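Input sequence (267 aa), recorded before submission:
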Amino acid sequence: MKIKKTLVGLALTAALVLPASAKDVLSINGQNLWSQAQARLVDGGTTYVSLRTISEALAPDARVVWEDGAAWVRGEGLALCAKPGDQWLTVNGRALYVPQQVRLENGRTMVPVRVLAEALGSGVDWNKETGVTLTPGKGRPGPAPYTEEELYWMSRIISAESRGEPFLGKLAVGTVVLNRVASEEFPDTIYDVIFDRKWGIQFEPVSNGTVYDEPTQESVLAAKLVLEGARAAGDSLYFLAPELTDNHWTMENQTYVTTIGCHWFYK
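Predicted structure, token format:
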């Protein structure tokens, strides 16, 4: 079965956009915590909230502490870490994307409400009458929406293809792989996309063997994020480093999307 882009998008912890009529409502169990959570809209409508306030409301048995430059939420079956400046937070081995970064404001660690709700296994809803409503769940996330095999191969192709590339470039390589999985033109699984030989070997690390090398930790993180729904380079299906190859078929036959690091991306 094809991994549809719409389904993949459900894993993405996307921005929550609120109209003015409901912008000051953030309710949990009927209580409006908008002011207490220092909630506010930033950069196009993402709702940021205080990690401590919302975590204490959704996971009341957990402890929130500051250690080594990061905020930790720990409880039974829960280990969540959010470090200001990072574009992700981690929880129980998963990594959730925060494209506008975890923030530190007036001594408070601030994160997008949808990201935090997912990390704590809680529901989140909005309507124009009641604003944002958070429904307490288990206080910890569910299982990752991918298999260990998918993470194994995704982390290795990202690492082999993008050593020395910026983190966004690593996300972009992973995006290309998943875009191919979703496309009718390519195989249906991550493994089969990586080792596809229909038109010849598709990825150089397959031919030179570096796809089997141990991946870097940053590549494992990037793999987790794209498998959770993070994306870069749009609908790209191809990429190449023009200065490192004599084969410019992609440049001559596909539509240019963007350049990240030394890679040019096409669809």
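Checked by second reader. The chain has nine helices and 16 strands.
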